[in-house]
């Protein structure tokens, strides 16, 4: 490793924030950053634009990065970078997947994942091509006491070509074109982890790749060599990210899909492991709505476990394309939202209002020729309340509205 590229984790690569600046951020943490900039003249001797940017980023990070937000000494990147970085919840989960002597993070960035994963290693190498980003990461790692992380402000693939090796290698490839709304292929990301698979697998026997949840899992599985597992990560109500695990010793393309719906500590609340063959062969039965209704979590839908849900949880589908499930007895372990069915109505507000008190209800549509906001406007129903309306299509192609409440 050539000298001059590595920044000491003790933090001398960045000056950090002064006590006065920290006090200003603390005092104005919940203020409007734009209004603070307009009032900059009131705060003599302070770079209010810089501090307003820190406040804006910390506001974005309060829920997503609670531990980092609580540390007043840390330097935060622009708010957009905070929006795009991993949450502490998913970082905790990734930290539980990896361990060994040495970790290489080839995509650096803010360093959330690197920081938490580094706890399982004696030594970690963080690579980031942008010097300012790398210096901020080095400073933050030092403030957090992560002295075993070596920060390198250089291109990571060149370091691998120079012979750097590890037990695990981590990559979070970025979209090449910032204007792209969807990322379907790994080839649309940089670095090209699929194109450089031989180099990466030569550097480490185990590789963990994080991607956007928009990536096509089956297309990526064809692009990647030695694919062992795909973890589909759900947090709260969203599918947050996909994690591809490569293993140098994997003999064939027989990867497992692991759905993990986690809590704030990164611990699974629900989990479902299956493979594409099981999904293809799973038996599905269809039924009219019974005693309970189930809406799969977004991560389960992303994973494509549409038929597997029926065999694993003893539930029936309402229709092939509706992705809603039902059972006579309550299935508390179902990975998603569960409801007790109150009534099944025609999509007619005169019939629906007989089963909901007042003018409030939560509306969801699945395989139905109208959006929730259109129905809300048509039916004059406000959002909220304890009742849930599912407008959907049954197996006999009839359109219905299923009135539900949360099970006790």
Automatic annotation (TrEMBL):
Coiled coil: none annotated. Residues 336-404 form the THUMP-like domain. Pfam families: PG_1098_Fer, Thump_like. Residues 292-335 form the PG-1098 ferredoxin-like domain. This is 16S rRNA G966 N2-methylase RsmD. It comes from Dyadobacter fermentans.
